[in-house]
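User: I'm curious whether this sequence folds into something compact or stays loose and floppy. Could you predict its structure so I can see for myself?
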Amino acid sequence: MSTLKPTIGSERLQVLDALRGFALFGILAANLYSFIGYNTYSPQEIVALPILDRAVLFFIDWFVEGKFYGIFSILFGVGFALQAERFSSTALSFSSFWYRRMIVLCCIGLLHMYCIWNGDILTLYSLLGMLLPLYLRLSNKAILRWIIVLLIIPLLMYALYFLTAEASFWGSMRRFSMGLKAQWGFADLSLLEMRTSKSPIEVFSINVIHAIPRAMSYLMSGRYFHVLGLFLIGMLLARHWLPKIRNNDIPVPKSAIWLGVIGLVFSFAYAVTKFTTGWGFALNEIGIIQVIVYNVGSTSLAVGISMLFVYLWATGRAKSIFGNLAILGRMALTNYIFQNVTAVLLFFGYGFALMRGVPFSYLPFFAFAILLVQWVLSRAWLSRFKQGPLETIWKKLTYK
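Assistant: Here's the prediction. I'll summarize afterward.
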C-alpha cells in the first residue's frame, strides 16, 4: 500500500510560507486591537480617545481589519488544493486524511478558544474545512459561481438581521452565556473587571462565557459563508497560479492591482464610518453600508495582496525580507497560538493585566516586539527541527 509523509523543506513552496509569515503580522495587529481593550469601550468612549490612538485605530480598520484573516483563509484553500494534489498520485483516501486533519485542528482550536482566548479562528476553519472535499471535483466555473454566492450571502444575512433584530433567536446564545455568568456568580462584574481580575477563575470564566455567543455572531455577520468563499478563492488561485509559480512564470498581475485599488477604496469608506460613529457594524442604515464596504474591501484587498505578493516573490525583489517572513510562516500555527498566549499574559489578569492600561498608539510597538521575539525563536527552532512544535503534533496525529 502507498504511504504519504508530511511535506519536507525541499518540497515546500517557500512563497506560501512567506505569505503566511506576512499575514501573521496583520493577524497579531488585529488581535492586539481586542487585547488592549477595544471591546471594553463604548462607542462614545472610542470617539473621545486621543487623536493618536484614533489614528492607529483608523489605520487598523483601513489596512488590517479583515484583510489578513482573509489572506489566511485564502492560504487555507491553497493548502487544501496542494494536499489533494499530493494524494492524486496515490491509492490513499484523501477525504479520510483531510477529515482526520480537520478533527485534530478542531481539537487544538477548542483548547485555544476555551483555555487561552475566545477569539480563536482555528475551530471555524476546521469545521468549514470539512466541507472543502465537496468542491474538489467541481470545474473552475462552478467554483467561481459558488464563490459569488457565498460572498453575497453575508450581505443578505445582515439585511435579514437588520429587518428581524427584535427576534429572540438572534440573542439566544448571548442570553444563555449571560445566564451562565449570573449562575457562576459574576453577574455584577464587567468584561474589563473579569479580564484583568487577579482571580484566575474569573479570567478563565469570562473566556468561556464570551466564547459561547461567537457561533451566533458568525451567523449574524455571515462569517461562515465569507470564510468558505475565501477558501474556494484559494482553491481557484492554486489551480491557476501554482503551475506558474513552479515554472517561475508569473505575469504582471493587472487584476491584482485593480483588486487592491477597489479594496483600498472600500476599506477606507469602512474606516471612515467607524471613525465617525465608533461602531463597527451599527444596527441602522449606516450599518448596512458598513457591511457592504467591509466585505467588498477586505475580500478584494486580501486577494490583491496575495497575488501581488506572489508576483513580487517571483521577481526576486526583497528576497531577504521574504526569506525572513518564510521563517515565521513555516511555524504559522505555533506562532499564532504563541502570539495569543503572549498577549494574554500581557493584558489579562493571568499576567500584567495591561488591558486599558496602555494607549492604542502603543499597538505597533507591541506587535513588532512580539513578532521579533517569534522570529528569533522560530529561527532557532527550525535550525534544529523541520517543523514547529504544534505543527509536529498536528501532523503526527494526522498522518498514520
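Summary: The mean pLDDT is 92. The CA atoms of residues 131 and 228 lie 8 Å apart.
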